[in-house]
Amino acid sequence: MVPVELKGGFSNQTIKDVHYKELLKNGFRLKWDILTNKSCSVCRESGGRCGRSHDTEFLCYCPNGASHSSICNSGGKLKARSLLKKGALGASISAFGVAIIVLAYLCRHKISKQKSMIIGSKKMKKSHKFVVNFENRGILVTRRYSHADIKRMTNSFKEKLGEGGYGCVYKGKLPNGLLVAVKILSRLKGDGEDFINEVNNMSRTSHVNIVKLLGFCFHKTKRALVYEYMPNGSLEKLIYEENYFKLGCGHHGWDTLYQISLGIAHGLEYLHKGCNSRILHFDIKPHNIFLDENYCPKISDFGLGKICHREKSTISLLGARGTLGFITAEVFCRNIGGISQKFDVYSFGMTMLEMVGGRKNIMTEAERTSEIYFPHWIHKRLELQEELGLQNVTSEGDKEKAEKMVIVGLWCIQTNPSIRPIMSEVVDMLRGGVDFLRVSPKPYLSSPSRSSPTTSMSMVV
């Protein structure tokens, strides 16, 4: 059924009471607007066809033969399609969100991996550069061990020989049966500068009074140094009276102490003058001097060492180096003088005086105030030409060696570095006769000022 609009003159507004002949004769106009409205569109979306009932009401004719006033199946299909569309849209949005999250994770993982590769590459380059550095200079490269090798030679770090600020030293054995000392550096600063310094410095040396470096381990964070084994340990165990009871031994005699001091002097003379480049040790002390089976001294622990050119008399030094009691005054007071080889001379002098006294140079628990600082006490006895009061002096030879070590040691610890002898002069003084040595000026005990450690120094007379 189609609605029509009749011309004027007819009383009825529909075609059911009008003769077709009259209708066709007079003409009529179809009215389609209702079939193109929103209801018809919704009907078509539900699968139906738009139409009208006999009483001109809109109907939606469905495929199953039924008709409805609005849409087919009371809106079921439309609702299902709407839900389907909404579900599809939600799924698309969810999938897009998941894709974004996965993409972000992959990008972040890739960036992190690239950073890790860059860092790893830098470490690999540094390690490679570290080893190649020796080869380019024509220096014989010591053997490089893996961490597994280090663990094997020390029997899983079974026997500890000692411990210091750097880490621990363990006794080990190479496959050929040679005993070694393995130093594990577990407390590295920065990029392991101390480790690199030690290998670099020791690879330049070859002297009877320098500990021989047999190999090293440089793997990721693992650092180890393999030295020749020193059966008599460090010098500090030998010289201090407090250790005699622990070790079940006594004073080793003045000839032994004299030969040890002369050997240390030879070793330092070699570092300062005999190497291709001058090496300043910066940490000479009894703890870093080791003794082989014949009590031949060997200088070790070059972690704080610094290589300098021969033509330079002084070097720049950032921050204090060394151990308290063995550090020179010029480190804290630059007005006294620059940092030079005289630093090691001072440390050697303090070491030799501790060998003479059989005690630390500074002992706050001493019974008398005059004995707190040993260099002052022994210097006063020399000035007054009194007996030195040292242990185990049983002959004129012992007395001469002890007195010679005292006088040379006092010259080495002078506050003004220009007054201190260089190591070649120290060797000559120790070798010469005691009668040709004059007593040095009184040494001063120096320590950094608490208020300004880099510009001033407190003096104790």
Automatic annotation (TrEMBL):
Domain of life: Eukaryota
SUPFAM superfamilies registered for this protein in UniProt: Protein kinase-like (PK-like)
Compartments in which it is found: Membrane
Main subcellular location: membrane
GO molecular function: ATP binding; protein serine/threonine kinase activity
Record-linked PANTHER family: RUST RESISTANCE KINASE LR10-RELATED (PTHR27009)
Similarity annotation: Belongs to the protein kinase superfamily.
Name used for this protein in its record: Protein kinase domain-containing protein
Organism field: Eucalyptus grandis
